[in-house]
Amino acid sequence: MPRSIWSGAISFGLVTIPVNVVPATEDHSVRFHQYHLEDMGRVRVRKYCELEDREVPAEEIGKGYELSRDRVVPVLDEELRELPLPTAKAIEIAAFVPAGSIDPLRIGEGYYLQASGTVAAKPYTLLRKALERTSKVAVAKFAWHGRERLGLLRVRDEAIVLHAMRWPDEIRDPGELSPQQVRLSDDEITEAEHLIDRMTREDLEGPDFVDHYTEALEQVIEARREGQEPPEMPEPEAGPGTVLDLMTALQASVAQAKASRGEETEAEVHELPKKKAAAGRTAKKEPAEKTAAKKAAGKKATKKTAAKTAAKTARTTAKAGAQTAARKETARKKTATNSTTAKKTADKATAEKRTARRPRSA
C-alpha cells in the first residue's frame, strides 16, 4: 500500500473519524526524459532567479501572489496549512444523495480513506455500512492544495473512497455544442437499441480493456535495448465497404456483435424504405400495364404459396396417418401374442388336471 498523502478526519454530525488519504490509482505510463540527440546528454530544466541571474535551490523557492508587475505578496506553506477553515484538516460531509444524481463529469481522481488507528475502526465501519444499506453517497467539503474542494464519498468493497469533485461553475454548458435538429425513424432507434443490447456486458475485463499502447511502447524500448529494429506496425484489417445509410451500418454492427459472441447468425441488411411522398408520386406516374402485371404476379405468387402450403399439409397428414396405422398394427400383434400365450397356459393347466384324476395302475 502506498504512503499516506494527507491525514485528517471525516466529520458528519457529531461523529468524527480519523483517516489517512491513500492514492487509489496507479499510473503505468512510460516516462521519458529529454536528451541532447548528438551526445545523449541529459537536458534539464534549471530554476534561475531573474534578479540575481543564478540557479536557486529548492529550499529557497516559495509561493507568491502577484498583485501587480512590481509587487508580489509571499505566501508561506505554514500559512496555507493553518488556514482559518473548518475543512483545513477535516472532510466535512454536507449531505447524502443518491449515487445516480451525481453527474460523472463532476467526479475526479479517487483516493482510499484508511481508518487511522483503532479508535477510528468502529465509526469508519459504521459509515461504510450505512452508505451500503442506503445505496447513497456523501457529498463533503475539504481543503487541499491551496483551495477548498467538493468531495464524494462512496463504498468500494471494504473501503470508503473519496473522489475530488468539480464545483458547478467549473462545468461548461454544452448547449452550444449540440447538433442541429435531425430526423430519426423509430426503426433506426430500435436497431440502435439492439446494438446496445448485444454490446452490453457485466464487467470491463478482458483483452478489449488493456493498455495496448503501453505494451507496444515497451516492445519498442526492448528492441532498442537489444540493438534491434522496433517491430513494424501490423497491417490494419480490411474494414467493411462504404456505408450507404445509417440503418445499414446499425444492422451490420448488430451482426458483427453477434459474431463476436459466437452466435451463428447472418447479417440482415435492408434498405431504408422510400419516403411516402415520393412513393405516392411514383405510383401516380406508373403505367397501367405495370400495375396489372404486378397484380398478376401477386396472384401467381399467392397461388404458388397456397399450393406449397396444401402439399405440406398433405405430407404431414399422410405421415400422421402412417404413424397411427403402425401403432394400431403393433397393438394388434401384441394382443394376438398375448391371447396365444394365455391359451397355451390354459391348455397346459387342463392337461395337468386330467393327469391328476387318472387312477394309478396296480
Fold and architecture overview:
The protein is α+β, with helices and mostly antiparallel strands. It has seven helices and 13 strands. The strands form four sheets. Strands 1-2-10-13-12-11-9 form a seven-stranded mixed beta barrel. A hairpin with a 4-residue loop joins strand 5 and strand 6.
Topology:
Blueprint lengths: L5 E7 L2 E9 L11 E2 L4 E2 L5 E2 L4 E2 L7 E6 L2 E5 L1 H5 L8 E9 L8 E9 L5 H14 L1 E9 L2 E10 L2 E7 L20 H14 L12 H14 L20 H15 L15 H10 L2 H70 L5
Parallel strand pairs: 1-9
Antiparallel strand pairs: 1-2, 2-10, 3-4, 5-6, 7-8, 9-11, 10-13, 11-12, 12-13
Helix pairs in contact: 3-5
Separation of the first and last Cα atoms: 115 Å
- Rg (CA only): 42 Å
Beta content comes to 15-25%
Order of helices and strands: EEEEEEEEHEEHEEEHHHHH
Question: Looking across the biggest beta sheet, what order are the strands in?
Answer: 1-2-10-13-12-11-9
Instruction: Report the average pLDDT across residues.
Output: 76
Q: Structural class of the helices, strands and pairings?
A: alpha+beta
Number of strands: 13
Task: Give the overall form.
Answer: extended
pLDDT under 50 segments (min length 5)?
Answer: 275-295
Number of helices: 7
Main sheet overview:
7 strands, mixed, barrel
* Proportion of residues in helical segments: 25-40%
